[in-house]
Amino acid sequence: MMEMLLDVATILLALALMGVSYLAYRKSHLRATLYLTLAFLLFAFKKVVEISAESRVIQYDIGFIVDTLEVLVLLLFFLALWKR
Question: What is the mean pLDDT of residues 16-21?
Answer without folding.
Answer: 97
